[in-house]
Amino acid sequence: MRSSAMRDLMAITARPEVISLAGGLPDTSTFPSESFAAQMTRIAHESSAEALQYGPTEGFEETKACIVEVMAAEDMAPDPDDLIVTTGGQQAIDLITKTLVNPGDPVICEAPTYPGAVPTFCSYEADVRQVTTDDDGMRIDELGELLAVLAREGRRPKFIYSVPSFQNPSGVTLSDERRRRLVELAREHEVLIVEDNPYGLLRYDGDPRATLYSLDGGDYVLYLGTLSKILSPGIRIGWVAAPPPVLEKIGLGKQAADLCTSTLAQYFVREYFGEGRWREYIADLVEIYRSRRDAMLDALERHFPEQSVWTRPDGGLFVWATLPDYIDTTDLLAKALRENVAFVPGRAAYVDGRGGSSMRLNFSSSGEEQLREGIRRIGNVVAEQVALYETITGEHRTEPQPDREVEPGGGEIVPMPKRR
Ligand SMILES: Cc1ncc(COP(=O)(O)O)c(C=O)c1O
């Protein structure tokens, strides 16, 4: 078992003097507290006994109806019977892995991948293979080679895990062409895809992309969703859409894990969606987060040294920055914490220790001034390291790091260039 870097950091970054760009937290202070009070009061008055009771393992029909609405906003039309409500998207990842993976089974994911999935894959002893990501998402040519290598070895991966839109941690989005190719490859090789899409509705620029689930029709794609980023992570409501035989096994896993997802949280979701304003709330979040993203990108331009690169996400909550390869962001974090600022070191997004000079930066949970100040502080710490390196070596590099040739499935970090 491995610890989750983000969870570990949460204890340190809870100190009020720390500007944390480490968490993946949405800004829940934007949710109107009077609405919350009214919704919970209605539940207490009208359905207290039911809301305090156990519920069905697969979730209430009313919760599934809300999920169908959310998925419809991205042009998906699942059968409610193909859904199971989970305790956050995190539990969905856990249950899918528990259901499908035996020790040593290959699982393919992006490089870098969602840091919270790494401890899950490791705890079920998956043989995790990571495929390089560039500015258009997972490199499908490399994925094809890896599938061919595995096929020659007589091994079939249990699934390909992807966060195709505004990926956590890189912020990049899989292009339309690659989405089509990914779904085709999965069909050709008869491999399941696990599409994890917490951020699809948090788009700040550009046009929506078709989900893998809608491109595939739900045969080979298991779809994970969550209300964490568009409503609240505290209510812990996520879901899986999957074909019935897989869903049945996931349901057995969930019975063993927690019997059912919080009934009270599901009643809250029902009340909230019943008011019919959930789309407006997301529209408000989009406005707020777009400005924060822009503030962070502007601050990076001002305060990070020329030897660094970073992504420019069209949505989601994260920017991924890569520094010169002689800087280790795990060490840098210790220095940054002394300046009361935090980020997630890149290694957390890899299974094998790579990602050492990258970092994940969150822009949703701090105000614009704090973001600028946080980036200024990190920039200062980085500048000290660069100056030290240049003094010792006498070198002055302007490029972040060279591209490297890699074996299929041994994807290295490609520094994702800034879009000018
Ligand atoms: C890609 C991805 N999947 C899953 C999760 C888990 O979210 P939750 O369990 O709150 O739904 C997150 C949270 O940051 C995430 O970024």
Describe the protein in words.
- An 8-stranded mixed β-sheet has the order 2-9-8-7-6-3-4-5, with helices on both faces.
- It contains 13 helices and 14 strands.
- Strand 6, helix 7 and strand 7 (192-196) form a beta-alpha-beta unit.
- Mean pLDDT is 92; it is low at 402-406 and 408-412.
- With 420 residues, it is an alpha/beta fold.
- It starts with a helix and ends in a 27-residue tail after the last helix.
- The protein is globular.
- Pyridoxal-5'-phosphate binds at residues 24, 88-90, 114, 116, 163, 168, 196, 198, 226, 228, 233, 238.
Report the sheet with the most strands, covering strand number, pairing sense and barrel closure.
8 strands, mixed
Structural class of the helices, strands and pairings? alpha/beta
End-to-end span in angstroms?
41 Å
Number of helices: 13
Overall average pLDDT: 92
Counted beta strands? 14
Descriptive keywords:
420 residues; single chain; 43% helix; globular; binds pyridoxal-5'-phosphate; 8-stranded mixed β-sheet; alpha/beta
Condensed summary:
The protein has 420 residues and is α/β, with parallel strands linked by helices. It contains 13 helices and 14 strands.
